[in-house]
Structure formats: C-alpha cells, structure tokens
Write a structure and sequence with these properties.
CATH class of the largest domain: Alpha Beta
Radius of gyration: 20 Å
Strand order of the largest sheet: 3-4-5-6-7
CATH topology of the largest domain: Trna Endonuclease, Chain: A, domain 1
Helix content: 40-55%
Distance between the termini: 31 Å
Strand content: 5-15%
Structural class: alpha/beta
Order of helices and strands: HEHHEHHHHHEEEHEHE
Length: 281
C-alpha cells in the first residue's frame, strides 16, 4: 500500500479522491492527537471505502496540499499520511518514500527506514498546529456521534451471562482464534491484575503476553465501547507491571467480539488503537 506523491494533486476539487482526502485529513489529525497510527484497512472502513488500495490518491492529495500550505506559511508541515500504516509492518508503504526523500531522509536498509519513520510519526504527533491546518483548509475536526454511548459505558454493569461464559471458554481453549499459533498452550480465565481488575482470558508465552477482553454477540453497544476502554486500561497496567519486573515480553491486548464491530464505534476503536477480532467462535 502506498501514498502517491506524484499524480494526486488539488485538494478542493470535486473528484472522488479529493472528496475522500478532505474526509480523511480530519481523521488523521484525530489520530495524530491521540498518538495512534491507523491501518490502511481501518481508515478505508471509516471512510466507507471497500478497497484500501484506493487510498493512494486521497493520501497523495493530502501530501500535495500540505506541501502547498507549508510553502504559503513559510514553514514545513509534517506529512500526516505517515500515520497510515500497514498492519504487518506498522509503518507506511513504499509510496510514502518520496515524501521522506523530499525532506532529506536517506536510508540503506529496511530497519533504518523503519527507524526514520517511527521518529517521523512521533514528529507528526507532536506537531502543535493541526487545528490551524484544519482552519486554513476550511475543515472541521472529525465528527463523533458516540458521546451518549461513551457516557452509558461509564455506568454499564451486569453479571456474566451464559453466552459470555461460553465465548470466554472458547477463546481460552482456542488460542488460534486470537492470532496465536496453532498448538499454543490454552489460556487462563479471570486473571487478576494489580489494578484490581480481572482479565477475561490471558495467554502467557515465552515471547509475549496476550490479554483478551470478551464481549458476546448479544452485548449492547455501550458494553462494546466499555470493552474498548478496558483494553486500554489493561495494556497500561500490564505494561507497568512488566516494566517494574523487567519483563521484556511484548504485551498485546485485544477485544474479541462474538458479533461484528458496531460501525458507529469504528472511530473510537481507531483513535484508541485497540485491536478487535470479530465474529469469534
């Protein structure tokens, strides 16, 4: 997946890629402020695009407009398209390379390129004038219609029903359903962590720790939203414990859904950077 720097020009036109560019830029600014990259697939889903490969022109259009605006301001604006990454590598595709090279970035190995990109992504996240960019281009921050859902998630609670128990047991006994290799050891249920919470399922391997919050297909939307925030909390607690113990294993926390991710919660998932597995079991 790449971002085309050469052929996608113009930002205010009525071509489809220009309309998508104007929709995508506020989303990328939301991600930058949250310090979270977003995958090509997740951005395409949020834009209602069936094929993430078609993002190359909208992202190239954004890059071209940031170049123009930087020239007008007399100061470079970091290319926010770098926030869009491959799920496999966690960095942008090779189509972003012309933007890097135009900034004088050079590398000889893929590892050097990845290091440069990670530093550049941090620069994007720390850029203090994204609101000014939106204002200059006549755009509004990415809209959110989930405040009521988030508010409801604060007070939602309830016992564990049979569907939740069954899905939790399925995940515990089938590590491959959450991306672990076939043959991995089964997980543990209701594992207490220092914050006083209990994680639905925890897999401990020699190289990584994978925590899973489980929500059945019958879970109401505000409970799914609550699950996203729980994942953020669990990761922070597990990482703090690992830092204290000197445990260098990679930590991953994900949300396993018996049903599908509610479309209205996709922006929240993306801004929080939570991995979600759908239709599990």
């Amino acid at each position: 997946m790449g971002q085309t720097a050469e052929t996608a020009t113009g930002f205010q036109g009525d071509k489809l890629y220009q309309e998508r560019a104007r929709l995508a830029l506020p989303i990328l600014i939301r991600q930058a402020k949250a310090g979270q990259t977003i995958s090509y697939e997740d951005l395409a889903a949020e834009l209602g695009m069936p094929n993430p490969r078609n993002l190359n022109y909208p992202l190239g259009c954004i890059g071209d407009e940031l170049n123009r605006l930087g020239t007008k301001w007399g100061k470079e604006i970091p290319h926010i398209q770098a926030m869009v990454v491959s799920k496999g590598t966690s960095v942008p595709g090779s189509g972003f390379d012309p933007f890097l090279k135009n900034r004088g970035k050079v590398w000889t190995t893929s590892e050097e390129r990845k290091a440069i990109l990670k530093t550049y992504i941090a620069e994007i996240a720390n850029y203090p004038y994204w609101d000014d960019v939106l204002s200059e281009l006549g755009l509004k921050p990415a809209a959110s219609k989930i405040e009521d859902i988030i508010e409801a998630a604060r007070s939602f609670g309830g016992g564990e029903g049979p569907e939740h128990k069954a899905l939790k047991e399925f995940v515990r006994a089938n590590p491959q359903c959450v991306g672990l290799p076939v043959g991995s050891a089964e997980g543990s249920s209701e594992v207490a962590i220092p914050s006083g919470d209990s994680i639905d399922v925890l897999f401990e391997r020699h190289d990584r720790i994978v925590a899973v919050e489980v929500k059945p297909a019958s879970a109401p939307i505000h409970d799914v939203a609550r699950g996203l925030f729980q994942c953020v909390k669990y990761w922070a607690v597990l990482q703090a414990r690992a830092d204290f113990k000197g445990d260098s294993r990679q930590i991953a926390v994900l949300l396993a859904l018996g049903g599908e991710m509610p479309t209205v919660l996709v922006p929240l998932r993306n801004s929080l950077g939570v991995a979600v597995m759908e239709r599990v079991g």
